[in-house]
């Protein structure tokens, strides 16, 4: 096959308007771009979900720019669900299962967590809100889910959550259900001193 | 087929090398095309054997033959082998054989890369098939390998599966680059883009689809690899990832992939129907634009595979309407094929039988696809045998009948001998009956609620499953007849003229049969 021009630069009997090297170059550029696009879908997906509130993803820490007006004419029921991820041995439950709040009013609730094992462990709670349409209107000003939680062997803690339901919440939504799944993030590194406060290890941006 | 090429090679001073090195080192597009076709048929038989295991287990309710874990490995490997090992390499083989002869080129533009892209495939499938013998078994999470089933809960062999997918992806991408370079650079003088045969057009568009989506597949399996082995959390909710993201990325690859498996068949059928209707193809330009439109639309419909994961209403509506829109260019193609046949002087040799069955049965598969596209109805059909019936109707009488039709159509050109028409017609009718018996009852099973990917089922599904299994055994056994027909044709038979079909058109028929080892070393003039 020696007579086939490998780079077809117009020297052969065939018309070669473009060289093979150029076509291959463009194609490879396309391949690299699409490989990158596959990975770009990961942040794009997160941004898209955050903007639209799809998937029940609640946004990260909420910074109130001005005092929200409390809408005392409306009451919204907020329910709390807690569950454990696979092989997570902690006891994890909301202290109160449901509260009735007025939109615009900061409310504090707590979740009970207990590490019944004989080793220190790290946990990470991941929230999801239903209906997903309400996710855009549920603001957390303080949440244990912003950080990983470290509990020493046998330690018990109540983890705080402060939230505000936005007054712009669509009228037809009267009930929001916030679900936390607590995942095992491995054994805690041995700490030099007794530290009963939840230890901030990493801040992840999924709220 | 090798025997035939050997015997005729002596006529030419640039004959092929002898022995195994000929196949290892060859850069000849005809040799490589033959290897692709032989490889894909071997994979077709292997994947088919797995389908026989599946149907044997489903012959009766209850667990009789295999363990559920092994059943899941069979459904997974059957899908992977048929998609990546049988259908895609078969079309690449056809492209290798036919593209240079159709555009008047001496060979593919990048012959050495061509050799490499073929020889990667046996390596990839050796790795994939070897997982069956590993501890923990082969991948068992379905050919769609959804996370977290394939990441958190996958068997240890998943990493080998990922590596195999990487290699076959590289092979496909190199094949696609070769096709694009060949078509863009090596066309005979005078062959403008709009004079290209439709098989060339459909392959050009398929090659662009491959370049666009195979890297995304490589990306998604790379993310899986990192989740499994390197502690990342792309698809792991505990680390801030999302399993639904997997489905988005996978189907962004997966939907164009189904068109990769059907567009070349569209092209081949667009040659075969005019040849046996003895009329030029109706609406050439509209055929080209329809294929382009299908290819573009295939990028914006992926979420119709995941209506039930919790897509917002606006998304369900968008993907529903976009999916239905694909019926328009597809309908253009079907009507054009019918219009080509209309008032034609039709004869029904084996290629035409397969091509006509293709048009009819692919349309049935298209219609069940439209039913699935209706978002509210999909909640009922999702993950049932209705889906299995749908995609087997578009892939078996679609892609595979298209490949059979192409094989019979071009076998005289490849081997120099006519195949046995009586046996070929027998092959067609047994395949036709077997395939419909196997897959049509699956529609009813799915509508009645039988879930897919299960080794056991409720008693009320027993009768249809038995019919389906009998049809599947019939279809499977019939393919051995195809092997016999091809071997018989390759070893001898009635000598084929340069143009064995009355109405066939194209540069490949200006060459003698069998096509010499080197063709079009001086380019033909296209008027």
TrEMBL record, chain A:
Keyword Plastid included in the entry's annotation: no
Subcellular compartments: Cell inner membrane
Transmembrane intervals: 23-45
Pfam short name (any one): CtaG_Cox11
GO cellular component, one term: plasma membrane
Topological category with respect to the lipid bilayer: Single-pass type II membrane protein
Main subcellular location of this protein, as a coarse class: membrane
InterPro entries associated with the record: CtaG/Cox11_dom_sf (IPR023471), Cyt_c_oxidase_assmbl_CtaG (IPR007533)
UniProt entry keywords in alphabetical sequence: Copper, Membrane, Signal-anchor, Transmembrane, Transmembrane helix
One of the record's GO molecular function terms: copper ion binding
Functional summary from the UniProt entry: Exerts its effect at some terminal stage of cytochrome c oxidase synthesis, probably by being involved in the insertion of the copper B into subunit I.
Entry's family note: Belongs to the COX11/CtaG family.
Protein name (database record): Cytochrome c oxidase assembly protein CtaG
Organism lineage: Bacteria, Pseudomonadati, Pseudomonadota, Gammaproteobacteria, Pseudomonadales
TrEMBL record, chain B:
Domain of life, source organism: Bacteria
Species: Marinobacter mobilis
One Pfam entry name: COX1
Chief localization: membrane
Family: Belongs to the heme-copper respiratory oxidase family.
Name of the featured protein: Cytochrome c oxidase subunit 1
Listed CDD domains: Cyt_c_Oxidase_I
Keyword Electron transport recorded: yes
EC numbers: 7.1.1.9
High-level lineage: Bacteria, Pseudomonadati, Pseudomonadota, Gammaproteobacteria, Pseudomonadales
